[in-house]
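Q: What would this chain look like folded?
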Amino acid sequence: MRIVHTADELRGLASRPGRRAGDRASRAVVMTMGALHEGHLALVRAAREEADEVVVTIFVNPLQFDDAADLDSYPRTLDADCALLEPLGVDVVFAPSVEEMYPAGDPVVTVAAGEIGRVLEGAHRPGHFDGVLTVVCKLLHMTQPDLAFFGQKDAQQIIAVRTMARDLSMPVRIVAVPTVRDADGLALSSRNVFLSAPERARALVLSRALQAADAAARVGADLAEALAAGHAALAHEPDVEVDYLEALDPVSAVPLEGDYRGEAVIAVAARVGETRLIDNVVTRFGPPID
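A: My prediction, written as structure tokens:
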């Protein structure tokens, strides 16, 4: 496994001897901000199964933080991350500095998320998805992958990235990997380390709320009834500060309402103590699911 820190080093590996001669080898990228956990490793394993070469990027992107304190406190554990990645057959770890990614400071030209960046998670974190898409766009250009793997836990992010790839004619397939959860149902997140034991117990209400909404949808409840079931579950933890529990279109991320029928993503975001968590479930509205 090679660990590189600059774009020049990364380009120098483009024709490395490990790639197949003749037919072009496939390359997958897994983009992370480090502090790796089993959810990230599931992305790497999925990439390893589909591609000849796997590149993992580790970069804490300042453009997607709207809180300087949150950026400063985000865990940075490069050595431990690389130790987790090497046994999985990762070919390259690209861990650039902020100066390498943004040599002139904050970029003048960025990628705008449009309406996707103004609803739900975007409404609560203005500019967040612009920052995400800008760094994803840069990393796609720098790593030149055929496939890019993202976790389903960040559902709105996947929608935004897929939309960017489609609208800007990027030759990459975006692959969503199911959310990895602990045995108690809590979605894995690098931010979980900030939860105290009592806060972690309270945080389980997020997955319970999603389960309640999904179960209602699967027996034929309409959108309003399913969301009501989710909100009822959330009400059992009054100390959890809920930002939203909404159903969104899986292609556009537009919040759904009325008599919608078809696949939907039910997403929740809440603050548990000082830690903000997100989670979601994919469900379907319409006839009961057998």
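Residues 15-22 have pLDDT under 50 and may be disordered.
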